[in-house]
């Protein structure tokens, strides 16, 4: 189960809480808090990696069990990855507004606080009403990434206009830490019917340069593959990729030969083994 619970007792000691879980024959899930003494607990902190509907249901059941066993305690949620964040608008009539639905479920669960890491958009931030750890903070915590930038005197590259405001904040934060990095912005044209990327464009001379592409999520990686191919065609010496949420639903192999280094966090569990003999791989641990 990708959900952990830390209890803060009234005497200020902390302990992990074990959750027993099982599934009934009909498919329904159930949970029970093992050895839980609600009289001694002041608050609880739940860290949840929600990558499936089962995990979302487990979280809601655990929250209900805590509320019933210890009425009135403060239960906060650490949510490294906000599921459904990319469905943050209705593009075609008849579609669901999935991010709003998911945010409503979490808000209505009654957490005292929700903390997220690098939300996909301002829409998600407004819907969820959560405290956020921003991409700039994460990049500045990532020692291997900062070393890579300095070693290769790399520039930062926003994959599209939507990511440019985040990249500007990353550049400012790095500058405050003594690392100067030029910023470029690419663009992409999509098929309006399918959403597929038709072409990536960059009006800049990057010959001989090292560049770090930054974004919040890598799923199949199509955006980054096409952009890295363009950079190599334009003579870039080296291409790195930073994504906070590395789903890598097609694995790392499609990136090989185009992207030289990948930096990500453990906000999600990659859908395929995070390994490569060709690409340099680094992970920033958000939680021990």
TrEMBL record:
CDD domains: PRTases_typeI
Signal sequence residues: none
Alphabetically ordered keywords of this record: Kinase, Nucleotide biosynthesis, Transferase
EC number: 2.7.6.1
Molecular function via GO: kinase activity; magnesium ion binding; ribose phosphate diphosphokinase activity
GO term, biological process aspect, one: 5-phosphoribose 1-diphosphate biosynthetic process
Superkingdom field: Bacteria
Residues covered by the Phosphoribosyltransferase domain: 149-245
Keyword hit for Transferase: yes
Gene3D superfamilies: 3.40.50.2020
The name this protein goes by in its record: Ribose-phosphate pyrophosphokinase
Organism, as annotated: Shewanella algae
Name of the coding gene: prs_1
């Amino acid at each position: 189960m990708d959900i952990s619970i830390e209890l803060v007792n009234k005497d200020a000691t902390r302990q992990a809480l074990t959750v027993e879980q099982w599934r009934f024959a009909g498919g329904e899930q159930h949970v029970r808090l093992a050895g839980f003494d609600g009289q001694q607990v002041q608050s609880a902190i739940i860290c949840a990696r929600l990558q499936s509907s089962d995990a979302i249901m487990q979280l809601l059941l655990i929250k209900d069990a805590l509320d019933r066993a210890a009425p009135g305690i403060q239960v906060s949620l650490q949510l490294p990855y906000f599921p459904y964040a990319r469905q943050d608008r209705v593009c075609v009539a008849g579609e669901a507004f999935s991010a709003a639905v998911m945010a409503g479920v979490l808000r209505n669960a009654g957490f005292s606080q929700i903390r997220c890491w690098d939300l996909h958009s301002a829409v998600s931030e407004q819907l969820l009403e959560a405290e956020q750890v921003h991409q700039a903070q994460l990049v500045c915590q990532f020692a291997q990434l900062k070393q890579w930038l300095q070693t290769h005197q790399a520039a930062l590259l926003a994959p599209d206009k939507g990511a440019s405001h985040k990249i500007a904040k990353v550049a400012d934060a790095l500058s405050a830490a003594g690392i100067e990095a030029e910023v470029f912005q690419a663009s992409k044209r999509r098929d309006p019917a399918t959403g597929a990327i038709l072409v990536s464009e960059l009006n800049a001379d990057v010959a001989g340069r090292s560049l770090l592409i930054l974004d919040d999520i890598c799923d199949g990686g199509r955006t980054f593959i096409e952009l890295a191919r363009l950079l190599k065609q334009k003579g870039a010496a080296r291409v790195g990729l930073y994504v906070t949420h590395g789903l890598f639903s097609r694995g790392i192999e499609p990136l090989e030969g185009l992207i030289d280094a990948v930096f990500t966090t453990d906000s999600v569990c990659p859908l395929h083994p995070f390994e490569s003999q060709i690409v340099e791989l680094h992970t920033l641990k958000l939680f021990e």
